[in-house]
Amino acid sequence: MKLGSKIMLAVVLALSLLLMFGSSLQESAVMDELAHIPAGYAYVNNLDYRLNPEHPPIVKMAAGLPLLFLDLNFPTDNEAWTEQVNGQWDMGYAFLYQSGNDADQIIQWSRLGPMILTLILVIFVYIWSRELMGKWWALLPAVAVALSPHFLAHGHYVTTDIGATLGILISLYYFNRYLASPTKKKLLIAGVAFGVAQLMKFSAIILVGHMLVMVVIYAFIRTDKIKGAVGLLPRYLGKLFLIFAIGALTIYPLYALTTANYPPERQLSDTTTILQNDFQQGPLKYVADATRWSSNKPLLRPYAQYMLGLLMVFKRSTETNTLYFMGQVNESGGPTYFPIIYGLKETLPMLIFLALGLLLSTHGALRSLSKGTRRLKDYLNTNLHEFSALLFIFIYLAYSISSPLNIGFRHLMPVIPLFYILATGSLRKYALKSAHRRQLKTALVLFLFLWQGTLAFTSYPYYLPYFNEFVGTDNGWRYVTDSNYDWGQDLKRLAQLTEREGIDRIAVHYFGAGSPEYYLGDGALRWESRMGNPIESGVEWLAVSVNQLQASVAPTAPGFRRDIESEYRWLEDSYNPDFIAGKSIFVYKLGED
Asked: pLDDT digits over 545-558, tens only?
């Protein structure tokens, strides 16, 4: 039975890959892929980072590498490349749909990289869990990730959310290992892992705060006297600085490679333009000034490009985003956004499993706290991974809930595997004593995970719009849209619907990275509500992405104003279309009673 758990893991990985691949084949490009795919190809083919600087390179490079095996026309003579500053959207459209390339081929090949990263994430969850709880228990969190509708959805898109999750988990794991048993080798690995996380997504910068808190706590638990702890703290902080320094060195090679053919004068011009209206005051002003100054310096250009992206993310995190949430259109979902979204989109078996596991984990931690400092130190020394995960979850969720940028469940993904690992560890650790109760617990856990596996198949291929049984996938759009439900994935399905129904001409108000003309031909007319009723132009059919529909017809929150011309006031019974393409594009026959 030594290979039994590994064989089961291999089976789960194969199922996960097949489900992701099958779902991907049926979908058009989602919104962010329009920027990420051309950027990734430019990084690996042209060694030029002028596109999409607001995200680090690894995920996009993973998507771009398979494209090197295709004979593609990358339109570097297009104005989006030659003239525009960060013309990522126009370049993506030109690359996919206007340069004689097979857009579907590009999209599917580029998604192979994220799928592989998703499988690596599942394997890493298993490795971390096996170290904490043994090989059989470790299968539970690995299965929970591999067969989650949400990881199956975002795992096959060229976006940075899976990369962020993988990078953060790897960094946390190796940092914890260093704290538990400090050696030079482990410090080096922790530093490299921290750098890899920064190359996945800029939100991984939150690890800095987490690590600072952890080293302060562990400086104090390594000695019984406050004076001794204060004496240890500088040494701990010095080691942490080395981890950050190693991480900075890890970042350099990839940025040096991907800026090798980015003309220095163009990098300076782009950086200056992007930052010209931002960071005029405060401490980040000096960072922005240094970024501009170093953007054309031969040895410093890679770090300047990294800092430009980080500054862009800092700015974006303070901005709002028009969204539909819980019956209203507003510019922010507020502090209830992520708790509600998680409760509606996480699968019911995992919500039950997490409730049981986190309840037991919290109970165990509180028992240790109630028994004095000595027991607290014992708990921290013997439960480092558990405490570190709980602390990171708290910091990450506190930041997410307080942020005005509410654009999707996917932003919670970095903490979800930690939820699963903690819940599994708690159920194993606080096992019921009697044999009868242990059998009952085992049966309950197996039932929940069989339920989770069943959902992976019954929700196929509609993973992105998945909502649990509290509301149902078909009704999810009534609660929230954007990347939670409608990200542009159903345009190919709209083309299939129009062919099946014999619809030759159709007005299309689409949200996503697809091209209506590419998939539907000359019969597709791009439309917006301000253009009036298409029937007045002789077009009897209208297709509207539900994200655009809710933004146009749903009530607005108090204080939020919407342009009257953007409202579908002339569209009767807008919530009862004649057809729905996939789950997210509503299709109406106009001019009929």
From this structure: 999 999 999 999 99
